[in-house]
Amino acid sequence: MNKRNQLRLLTLGGALAPLSAMAHTGHEVAGFFQGLVHPLSGADHLLVMLAVGLLAVGQTGEKARDMTRRTRIAVPAAFLLAMVAGTLLAIAGLAVPFVEQGIVVSVIAAGGLLALAVRFSLVAGVAVASVFALFHGLAHGAELPLAAQPVAYIAGFLITTSALLVAGTRLGQLADSYSMGLISRLAGVAVAAFGVLAAV
């Protein structure tokens, strides 16, 4: 891997560094701009979305490469759809206990799966991403009563979520192109470690 591509990886990773520990701090929610920056305001959202993007590319071998082309699209898309579903369920008044704990578990699990280089079938990958996203969507929805413009807020966080998922996928593709699976494993260790720290 040449220095230019190493710099790309470091720059992309550094640019997405979390701004605070957790995104759900009870801060005021308003509209589109707040929705746009919300996923960047806490490491829980940011790390899970990047991890899901990395997991979508985390396949090796010829047979797996064919699957990777599908998972690269299907897994992030499933995450987005499940997050919207969770948001709508929360808006509808569904009260699910332990949402914050579920988010922390999703961070630990996503990191663990990356660190262990777990291989998924397409269905399993979609299911795992959907479960992770459901908790994040429920948390988003719980904050929407504070929103002056709920539809604009949802549109904002969907745009940023999509960008983070694409960024994770791109990082995974770069690492895979240069046979640097160790990067994904180390990223997984870091994500899981953050989740454990957040849990204690």
UniProtKB/TrEMBL annotation:
This is HupE/UreJ family protein. The keyword Endoplasmic reticulum does not apply. InterPro entries: HupE_UreJ. The keyword Cell wall biogenesis/degradation does not apply. It comes from Amphritea atlantica. The chain crosses the membrane at residues 42-61, 73-96, 102-135, 147-166, 178-199. Keywords: Membrane, Signal, Transmembrane, Transmembrane helix. Residues 1-23 form the signal peptide. It holds the Pfam family HupE_UreJ.
